[in-house]
Design brief:
Urease, subunit C, domain 1, about 35% helix, 8-stranded parallel sheet, TIM Barrel, 8-stranded mixed sheet, homodimer
Chain lengths: ~400, ~400
């Protein structure tokens, strides 16, 4: 593996250093490292960040790079689920090509690790999983992709889905997904027992979509926490969205957060502007890991989103009324270190020993990077330059 | 004035036409207009929009284009007001240069009309107003700027401010501003009487910042509506923010909206993600004009915002959970026709007789333009090409 010396960069906006990369890892960070025959890149005093992390998306759903999809879908969760299944059946949606286009756009903007939920249902079977597995294989060595086997159309309400999830975990999915055990599956206990059962059998972690509002969501969350404790899954469960934590009474919320901190259950937030959300600062203060994701990007669910985690950090900041520099740093944390901790991505960061996933951009401070999202001048993945001037190298 | 023929463009994404511009106005829109010696621009099938409108900003406050401002300001409205006044006094902030930089960035992204609030206070006097008047003069013929004389530091609580507002209206301000008559001025009746008195004396419209939440805001809004009726100011009053309409009980909200529709009092919304806001669809259905603005852009109040009204339309869409194409068209409406109606900008639109303010970009539909905010390929203001490839022509 070619070694690399990145000269004159400011890690997190601090004083300029050189970064020596050996065998895909950061070897040394110091001023005036001798070049010693390695390839040298001049960072020209740019701001250096670690590879960004997308903690919750749906690579398989995207229509990124395709002609505009005219959205005329009804407003309920069920409308969107049914519309998507029908659209994909009719259009012959190609999850391999779609996920590849989006993953490469993410890489060009400096995202080197992704947790993606992939639809598993009784109509499409494992088709979308196989597509995303193809993309994962194609990008191996440049990007790390975690796959959650996700019962988007429901688990109990579509018999046979559990067997498909089981099969997905054998074929390469890394985590078991779940979806609104009350709201969609209508039987929270049985739904969660299936999810946790699968996780236990396969020795995998869990990441559950929980859109349920208010006390319904809190009730489901209680059941998730009970099972996390009973099965000793501390540190291996993520609750995505957890909107209920943005609307239940403060005392109820804080009791739930205390229990989540104790069980090391993390939260993935997309920080939507139109719903109650778990407040980032409160979760962090309670000791709960909270990290960021886009959710779907330009698909039949939503025309919004972009494959740029600094853009998502900006939206997290806006949703949480983060304005001060230290607050924007907390927003960046959601798409860097907190996401690594929450998803279990290892060898992460800007220190010797970390995998050399590096993002260079022109900004004075982290806060400016979050607010302005300047183009990525250089992206290094696994020690190799993979993008320059916001364009992927072939 | 040089005439212009813009060939092969799709107004609002409809079928391609040519647009003939004469003397700064749209003369004809049709297929196959003969060139007849005028300058021809090939639109190459791009999406054509009318010049975008910024309905609520603060050009005088911005630090756009300056070194990053490290924000460590406290969270209360009063903290931000006091910090800004102190910062400007210490830094010798130049409102002429600052507003010029931001206004030009707006123009490059296709914004041809702006309503800006300008701080008037007993420390700075009319300094900021004079700066923005300079910018308005410099950009005359390319951009239309409405100025609201805005008592940012309070009106009653800083004696002498009313006399300064009076003077500002004589020196070129177009509208009288106001600020939280309960929350800041602590005497809503007297505060609003001063504002409406100034408007009556000068024959000017009014645009009042109303951040007050819940029933306090609704109470102030009642008083504003009473005075609008009493002074026959129908169609000449705007309430900016009106956060209370996002949180009072629905029956109270709907009664207020019905009264606003009757008195033709419009709402300017910045659609912040972190606060209750007036719901765009509900306001429109009630017959109330609601339009969009950025509020401050990269200043001592906030690091956020950008001088691109498609970006603001996207944030309005996100805040209102707008996903369908027709909903994104409603978001665009907030920064085009609704803003023209709400601010009273005339000769607006994409039809013969309208001022030739034209924005050309590569998008299939309006929805795509809002979701993706592609660079502006061409901007025409008053019939003249003023920007190309997202860069202002000198």
């Amino acid at each position: 593996m070619t070694d690399l010396l990145l000269r004159n960069v400011r890690p997190y906006g601090r004083a300029p250093v050189d970064v020596l990369v050996r065998d895909g890892f950061i070897a040394t960070m110091a001023a005036g490292i001798p070049a010693d025959g390695v390839i040298v890149e001049d960072g020209m005093g740019g701001l250096l960040l670690p590879g960004l992390i997308e903690g919750h998306t749906h690579l398989d759903k995207t229509l990124w790079g395709l002609p505009w999809y005219r959205n005329a879908v009804g407003p309920r969760l069920e409308d969107r689920i049914d519309n998507e299944r029908a659209f994909r059946a009719a259009s012959g949606h190609d999850a391999a090509a779609a996920s590849r286009r989006l993953a490469e756009a993410f890489l060009a903007s400096g995202t080197t690790r992704i947790r993606t939920h992939v639809d598993i249902d009784t109509e499409a079977g494992l088709k979308h999983l196989r597509g995303v597995l193809e993309t994962r294989a194609a990008l191996a060595g440049r990007m790390e992709i975690q796959i959650v086997a996700f019962p988007q159309s429901g688990l109990l309400i579509r018999p046979g889905t559990d067997a498909l999830l089981d099969r997905a975990l054998m074929e390469g999915a890394d985590l078991v997904g779940g979806l609104d055990p009350c709201g969609i599956d209508r039987d929270a206990v049985r739904s969660l027992d299936v999810v946790f059962g699968l996780a236990e059998r396969h020795g995998k972690g869990i990441d559950i979509h929980l859109h349920e509002p208010d006390e319904t969501g809190a009730f489901s969350l209680d059941l998730i926490l009970e099972r996390t404790a009973a099965l000793c899954m501390q540190g291996r469960v993520v609750v995505s969205h957890a909107f209920c934590l943005g609307s239940v009474p403060v005392a109820r919320r804080d009791a739930l957060l205390a229990r989540m901190a104790e069980l090391r259950v993390a939260i993935a937030t997309t920080a939507p502007a139109s719903r109650p959300v778990p407040p980032v600062a409160v979760c962090k203060a309670a000791g709960v890991t909270i990290f960021g994701g886009n959710d779907g990007i330009r698909d039949t669910w939503t025309p919004h989103g972009r494959p740029d985690m600094l853009h998502r950090a900006m939206l997290i900041a806006l949703r949480n009324d983060f304005r001060r520099d230290d607050e924007l740093e907390a927003a960046l944390h959601c798409v860097t270190d907190a996401a690594a901790a929450g998803c279990g991505f290892t060898a992460y960061g800007l220190q010797p020993g970390a995998r050399a996933d590096l993002v260079l951009l022109d900004a004075e401070t982290i806060a400016e990077a979050v607010a302005a999202q300047p183009p990525r001048r250089l992206v290094v993945a696994n020690g190799q330059v993979v993008a320059r001037g916001a364009a992927l190298l072939s």
